[in-house]
């Protein structure tokens, strides 16, 4: 579910105070170079270079802002739930754990383990071309405090490489494409960064599949295809990232990540009492950019172009590029852990013949039909898939131009 700013353009008020108990006073520092050409008005943004706000005059954060409260509630809902006793009190840690285990078991009734169901799933896969789509953070790598250190293990990399040897394989991530590539470092994959707004992959895969699309050479001279449906938004995303970096400076732990067509605001290292002030600053910036929209992830808010494009559309685009969009003998498999992966789960569920798999250690509302607990189970699933494929060479259907 995405939140889109429906407001008329309102210029950010650099003098707006914000604070909250436990959250230090703000000192907004906004460069005059951030003057925007995008707000739909001829008015020019001119900010003073640095506006220190005396702590005495700071008022409490406006947490009555319904839009901001909605974002925070939805973000908190992504975190493991706290269980209360029948009397309304919070349970002790052991009882909390037992309640979470019971809830997860019940949830698994509706979203069975893709590993436990593997043999049954593969009965459906017989004779079909499997195409593998993988989210990165929380799926191939563990969720870590510092997003710059979300490394995947060498064993996971080797496993994904093997998967790509047998099946067309794509990474679909909210991160910038280059950043995901730096983490994964496998040239044989397709990469859809910025929630699929920046797609690139080999023109001809090691598994024999050829992709159609705009062709170019990558830095190493390899022929690639690429697709960037939101390219006109690039200068705007640079501008928004700079604004947010300036505004987030005074909030300890806040991290702004430029993911090319998506700016990610990380809350993971921010104390919960500072979430409101940070979210308010995001809202202030977003108000000036009606062409952008806000989406939620696991302890992140993300700003991206408000175009009809998401991970689901990226999956459909890649299937079409590979000549695998309409055929009955294709079986896409999508693994992801995040709210933004739900668009892909829905797209695949609509298609009918597909496996949508949520990676989660807690029960949560999802469109995915199946589940895996964590990246280690993802690795076991992928290794099992490779072994299955090696045992069923006849199950591979041919690339479109050879049918
Ligand atoms: Mg993820």
TrEMBL record:
Catalyzed reactions: alpha,alpha-trehalose 6-phosphate + H2O = alpha,alpha-trehalose + phosphate
Keyword Protein biosynthesis in annotation: no
Any one GO MF annotation of this record: trehalose-phosphatase activity
Cofactors (names): a divalent metal cation
EC number of the protein: 3.1.3.12
Matching InterPro entries: HAD-like_sf (IPR036412), HAD-SF_hydro_IIB (IPR006379), HAD_sf (IPR023214), OTSB-like (IPR044651), Trehalose_PPase (IPR003337)
Gene Ontology process terms (BP): trehalose biosynthetic process
Gene3D superfamilies in UniProt: HAD superfamily/HAD-like (3.40.50.1000)
Keywords of this entry: Hydrolase
Pathway: Glycan biosynthesis; trehalose biosynthesis
Pfam families: Trehalose_PPase (PF02358)
Similarity comment: family membership: Belongs to the trehalose phosphatase family.
Function text: Removes the phosphate from trehalose 6-phosphate to produce free trehalose.
Protein name: Trehalose 6-phosphate phosphatase
Source organism of the structure: Marchantia polymorpha
